[in-house]
């Protein structure tokens, strides 16, 4: 450990300003600060500093995401085995799941970090820890069937257009993970439509009889009027309990409400995720879904009548609220705006999900749209706050 | 007495809390002052090396504010004048003759005679006495222009910054001086507000009966700027002045004795001090003479003032004007591996991201390590949670970096009291304090202050 530290310290002069490899400084800094705490000291009048840094902040999100990722591995394997009637024992299921999911995560990190390192070197700023989160969030929103090259193109787009063109983490106004997800959604609709998201191993004739592979959302959205959406879901083999636990087809990390709640607990207890955003989103989604229930009848689409509990359990609502909407950089900066922001995400996401047949799920678009409006919400709130102050102007 | 609940305050629980013992120190041969630590000073030197000075002899003044003079705290001869970069006046070292002969600056005043003075006369005496720089003129937090008088003066008796002298110690036996000083302030302006900490240990009833407000909260509830922010009723009070209680005592002493009050109570504190405590010293006392108090001599940071607003000093420096504390902190810390994946029971932090949040610890030993790398703002929202004047440092920072000054001002930027706590909590280690300082200077310049 000491030897490693000495190697870093001995070679620092190559990477400092004016050094032989000064362009590579971001790379050097990233590895060095990943391994060891900084030796930098305070320069200004504030001589002591808090122990929290962005690395700790982001690693808390990674810890919170871990249950979702692990369950995602299990569920991807479970669904694949279920489709072809193979053993549902834990170990084979996990091995299959790992084969499906880990390459996606690896591709996301390798390609994303490559792009991130490159842009940091070109632009001369430090590598930001934000990518550690983006790099895991993004694959968890993908179906396990996603071809690796498509995932790679998506994350490259997300990092470049969602973040680096604006100056890196902290200066982006869109959530980079969702930008990447939106890109693959629009670029490769065949893989992303939400029809069949389970990996079918082997030949088609091995598929178990009666297995459709459709996601709960696809079933609910295509239910024809006289039939109730709940009945359609139950006919297709979905139970409320399965949807909450997460053993249903869907994107890798998004199916399990239980795992998302564990993540939410970690984010809330550490104060890293904004409880206002989460509460706002919950209230928004619940109120719109109740409104839909009130209007549901013979003339409306069957999806309107799906009870709120079902609405919150299927699809990626929980995951989006807890992990995507709470991204601090693309959220509004004020705590009070975050409640409004969350509420509008809940409202918009539910409307898009239920009423727009072109999109299987609404949260990605709702969050991206609200990302764009976040500065406006802040602006209005700041104006209101300034009016309450006793003016102190020159 | 009104009570003010200050919002968003924070207790750092920094180790090395000074003992209530107040010791005297041994005399030394060389005293000195450090003009380089007075912000925005353009010093005009009035003495030469080898020149004899008395306590109260004028050493230099501020070219921008000529009545703001700085007097010698000891008598003897000027030994050395040290210059720093770009010929900035670094230190004036004086060889003490150990007599402390005092130059009479003006006739002694009594409470009754102060009462008969005009407001300008009081200001004139304080200026002659070299104590003009004890005032902080808001909103720019500069030494006030010598021709101006404030709409109100805010006196803060206690100080909650880690660590500054405690009121019960420097007020001991000084109640007459305090009352004389307060009387002088009351001559200078129509309203003087006196604030005391909710948990003050001051028992002196003669002083307490002049208190107008009780300030509730941790750091920086007792900052006079914060006091001003919570107490002001309209915009006319924005240009009020602030002053600390020890300086009121010194003003009283100056007026009643007619000579420069060169003694003050300071604290010597910080993690590297064997026995952190109060000390009664003569201004200009060398920091070097305190070296015997330390547990180690290498790799230390000497801070003149509190650890959140103080300035970097050095072991060869002196306890100069308006400095009431010397801190000795560990410079940096041992690098550790994977620091951000550790449980962190030993890491002091404002939030709950380390398990130290579960530890009920009395105090934390801190060093000058930055504890992270410089990053862009990630809008984590920690800084508004600790801003005592209810503003939003992260938005100010972004606007100021983009060159917009108007918007921050409209949103209350000038209410900022430079307490430094936003910089303390920032996980991206953005130097908000220096960004705000520069912006404030720029605004002051444009406003012609």
Quickly count the helices of chain B.
12
| Rg of Cα set of chain A | 23 Å
Spans where pLDDT lies below 50 across 5 or more residues of chain A = none
* Counted beta strands of chain B: 19
Number of domains of chain A: 3
Backbone shape of chain B:
globular
In the CATH hierarchy, the third-tier topology of the domain at 2-12 and 109-257 in chain B is known as Rossmann fold
User: Helix coverage percent of residues of chain B?
Assistant: 10-25%
What is the alpha-carbon Rg of chain B in Å? 22 Å
Give the mean pLDDT of chain A. 90
Walk me through the structure.
The complex is a heterodimer of chains A (394) and B (449). Chain A has 3 domains: 2-35, no CATH class; 55-194, no CATH class; 214-378, no CATH class. Chain A has helices at 2-10, 12-15, 25-35, 54-84, 90-123, 130-140, 148-162, 176-187, 189-192, 216-221, 229-235, 240-245, 257-270, 275-295, 308-313, 317-324, 335-355, 363-388. Chain A contains 18 helices and no strands. The model of chain A has no long low-confidence stretch (mean pLDDT 90). In chain A, helix 6 packs parallel to helix 8 (176-187) and helix 17 (335-355) packs antiparallel against helix 18 (363-388). Chain A has 394 residues and is mainly alpha-helical. Among the domains of chain B are: 2-12 and 109-257, Rossmann fold (3-Layer(aba) Sandwich); 370-447, no CATH class. In chain B, a hairpin with a 5-residue loop joins strand 8 and strand 9 (89-96). In chain B, helix 9 packs across helix 12 (432-447). The mean pLDDT of chain B is 93. Chain B is globular. Helix content of chain B is 22%, strand content 21%. Chain B has 449 residues and is α/β, with parallel strands linked by helices. In chain B, the strands form 4 sheets. Chain B has a 6-stranded mixed beta sheet with strand order 1-13-12-11-14-10.
């Amino acid at each position: 450990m000491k030897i490693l530290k000495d190697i870093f310290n001995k070679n620092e002069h190559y990477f400092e300003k004016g050094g032989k490899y000064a362009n590579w400084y971001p790379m050097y800094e990233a590895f060095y600060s990943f391994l060891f705490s900084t030796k930098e000291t305070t320069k200004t009048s504030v001589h002591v500093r808090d122990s929290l840094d962005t690395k700790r902040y982001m690693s808390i999100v990674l810890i919170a995401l871990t249950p979702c990722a692990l369950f995602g591995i299990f569920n991807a394997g479970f669904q694949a085995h279920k489709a072809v009637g193979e053993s549902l024992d834990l170990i084979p299921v996990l091995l299959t799941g790992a084969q499906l999911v880990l390459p996606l995560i690896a591709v996301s990190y390798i390609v994303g970090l490559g792009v991130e390192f490159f842009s940091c070197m070109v632009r001369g700023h430090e590598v930001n820890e934000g990518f550690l989160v983006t790099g895991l969030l993004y694959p968890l929103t993908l179906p396990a069937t996603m071809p690796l090259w498509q995932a790679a193109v998506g994350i490259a787009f997300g990092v470049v257009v969602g973040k680096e063109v604006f100056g890196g983490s902290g200066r982006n106004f869109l959530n980079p993970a969702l930008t990447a997800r939106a890109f693959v959604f629009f670029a490769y609709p065949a893989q992303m439509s939400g029809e069949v998201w389970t990996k079918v191993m082997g030949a088609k004739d091995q598929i178990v009889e009666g297995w459709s592979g459709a996601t709960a959302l696809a079933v609910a959205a295509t239910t024809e009027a006289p039939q109730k959406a709940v009945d359609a879901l139950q006919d297709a083999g979905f139970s409320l309990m399965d949807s909450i636990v997460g053993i249903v087809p869907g994107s890798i990390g998004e199916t399990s409400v239980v795992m998302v709640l564990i993540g939410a607990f970690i984010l809330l207890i550490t104060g890293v995720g904004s409880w206002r955003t989460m509460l706002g989103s919950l209230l928004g989604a619940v109120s719109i879904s109740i409104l839909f229930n009130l209007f549901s009848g013979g003339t409306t689409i069957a999806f309107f009548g799906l009870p709120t509990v079902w609405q919150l359990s299927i699809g990626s609502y929980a995951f989006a609220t807890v992990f995507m909407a709470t991204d601090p950089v693309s959220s509004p900066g004020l705590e009070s705006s975050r409640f409004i922001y969350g509420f509008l995400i809940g409202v918009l996401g539910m409307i898009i999900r239920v009423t727009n047949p072109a999109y299987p799920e609404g949260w990605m678009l709702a969050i991206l749209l609200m990302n764009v409006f976040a500065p406006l919400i802040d602006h209005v709130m700041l104006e209101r706050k300034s009016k309450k102050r006793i003016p102190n102007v020159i | 007495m009104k009570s003010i609940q200050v919002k968003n305050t924070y207790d750092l629980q920094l180790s090395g809390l000074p003992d209530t013992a107040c010791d005297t120190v041994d005399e030394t041969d060389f005293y000195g002052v450090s003009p380089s630590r007075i912000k925005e000073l353009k010093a005009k030197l009035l003495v030469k090396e080898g020149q004899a000075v008395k306590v109260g002899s004028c050493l230099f003044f501020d070219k921008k504010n000529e009545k703001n003079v700085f007097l010698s705290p000891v008598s003897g001869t000027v030994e050395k004048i040290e210059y720093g970069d770009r010929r900035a006046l670094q230190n004036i070292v004086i060889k003490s003759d150990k007599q402390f002969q005092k130059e009479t600056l003006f006739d002694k005043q009594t409470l009754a005679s102060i009462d008969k003075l005009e407001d300008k006369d009081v200001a004139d005496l304080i200026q002659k006495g070299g104590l003009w720089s004890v005032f902080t003129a808001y909103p720019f937090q500069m030494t006030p222009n010598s021709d101006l008088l404030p709409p109100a003066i805010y006196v803060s008796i206690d100080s909650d910054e880690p660590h500054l002298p405690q009121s019960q110690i420097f007020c001991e036996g000084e109640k007459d001086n305090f009352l004389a000083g307060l009387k002088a302030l009351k001559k200078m302006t129509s309203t003087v507000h006196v604030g005391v900490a909710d948990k003050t240990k001051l028992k002196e009833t003669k002083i307490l009966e002049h208190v107008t407000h009780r300030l509730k909260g941790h750091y920086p509830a007792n900052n006079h700027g914060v006091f001003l922010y919570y107490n002001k009723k309209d915009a006319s009070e924005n240009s009020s002045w602030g002053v600390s209680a020890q300086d009121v005592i010194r003003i009283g002493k100056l007026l009643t004795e007619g000579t420069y009050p060169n003694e003050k109570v300071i604290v010597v504190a910080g993690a590297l001090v064997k026995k952190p405590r109060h000390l009664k010293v003569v201004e200009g006392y060398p920091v070097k003479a305190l070296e015997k108090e330390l547990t180690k001599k290498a790799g230390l940071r000497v801070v003149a003032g509190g650890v959140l607003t103080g300035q970097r000093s050095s072991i060869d420096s002196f306890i100069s004007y308006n400095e009431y504390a010397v801190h000795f902190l560990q410079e940096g810390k041992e690098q550790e591996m994977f620091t951000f994946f550790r449980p962190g029971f030993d890491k002091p932090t404002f939030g709950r991201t380390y398990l130290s949040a579960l530890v009920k610890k009395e105090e934390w030993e801190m060093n000058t390590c930055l504890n992270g790398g410089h990053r862009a703002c990630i809008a984590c929202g920690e800084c508004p949670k600790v801003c005592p004047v209810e503003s939003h440092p992260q938005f100010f920072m972004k606007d100021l970096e983009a060159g917009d000054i108007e918007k921050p001002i409209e949103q209350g930027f000038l209410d900022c009291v430079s307490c430094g706590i936003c910089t303390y909590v920032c996980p991206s280690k953005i130097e908000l304090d220096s960004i705000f300082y520069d912006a404030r200077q720029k605004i002051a310049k444009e406003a012609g202050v």
